[in-house]
Amino acid sequence: MIVASKKPIEEVIENIKDYDKILLLGCNECVTVCEAGGKKEVGILASTLRMYFLNQGKDMKIDERTLERQCDQEYLDEIRDMADQYDAILSLACGVGVQFTAEQYFSLPVYPGVNTCFLGATEERGLWTERCQACGQCILAYTGGICPVSRCAKRILNGPCGGSSDGKCEISKELACAWQLIVERLKALDRLDDYEKLFPLKDWSSDRAGGPRKVIREDVQQ
Amino acid sequence: MEGDCHYNSGNFRARKRVEQAQEILNTIGISGERAQMYNLSSSEGPLFAQIAREMTEKIRKLGPNPIKTALKKAA
User: pLDDT band at residue B71, thresholds of 50, 70 and 90?
Assistant: First the structure.
């Protein structure tokens, strides 16, 4: 999922302080799982902001709504009838949701309430780590299900570098060497001969480095 | 007392939430001391009374809700 973390309250306040009517829009998907922008966080942030502005002598209207997703038009359409009641939307969705909301509500300013960090998973409650960088050419079949593109600091594809030491990456003793993990996994799967195969040059044109990307499926387009 | 919660971990999670609430209140300029957590059991009546007196005293010293004052000023 997309992992995000809450923006500092001071930054959010700075962005919305001049408005009188705000819609605080949460998202029921990734940001709910990483406890940054779901219904609960919307409730807490709305309370916090109301209290702050009341303390400044300003009775700001802050309404709360959590949509199933903000990256699909059908869900954003649910607030179509009420959108003109507000001066601005504060969206706690990931960067995708904020932008899509802004596109769908062109004349309303839309502000982000979270910082979108990476594609990752919940290792344990309160700890989310990066697992995928969306390179567009998945090679997990050859690396025992462990990704060297996202978990190797150098994104190298043919084994560890000279900096790998005691299973740790040279950039930090807390960071596991991805290639150490890959070799151990291939050993456990009895597929070490996969490790011996040389990787051809990776086609990086499908990575973000090649520019903004898209996926088209003609078979499902209307 | 702390750690004796019938539901084991509930009291630890509650403490973290109270600390969160205190932090939020402090960030927005309302004293976080207005929210406090105490550990005691349902049979400790006198202790409860003492804590209630202590908290009342603390709040009196902190003064009325700053939001009320601010709204009055703006009105």
Answer: confident
Which residues are A62's β-sheet partners? A22
Same domain, A10 and A114: yes
- Do residues A146 and A90 both lie within one domain? no
> Residue A199 has what pLDDT?
80
In angstroms, rounded to a whole number, what is the distance separating the alpha carbons of residues B7 and A221?
A: 53
The pTM score is 0.89
Residue A82's CATH number: 3.40.50.2300
Q: Interface pTM (ipTM) of the complex?
A: 0.84
A106 and A36 in a single domain? The answer is yes
Q: Which domain holds residue A176?
A: 133-202
Q: How far is CA A169 from CA A104, A139, A157, A160, in A?
A: 44, 21, 15, 9
Q: Could you tell me the two tokens for A147?
A: 């990704």
Q: Show which of residues 25-64 on chain B sit within 8 Å of chain A, judged by CB atoms.
A: 25, 27-30
Q: Are the Cβ atoms of A44 and B24 closer than 8 angstroms?
A: yes
Residues of A with CB under 8 A from a CB of B: 9-10, 44, 48, 51-52, 54-59
Contact partners, residue A132, CB within 8 Å, separation at least 6: A119, A120, A147, A150
Residue B75 C-beta-side C-alpha neighbours within 13 Å: 8
Query: Strand pairing of A61-67 and A88-91?
Result: unpaired
A vs B: CB pairs below 8 A: 30
Domain count, chain A: 2
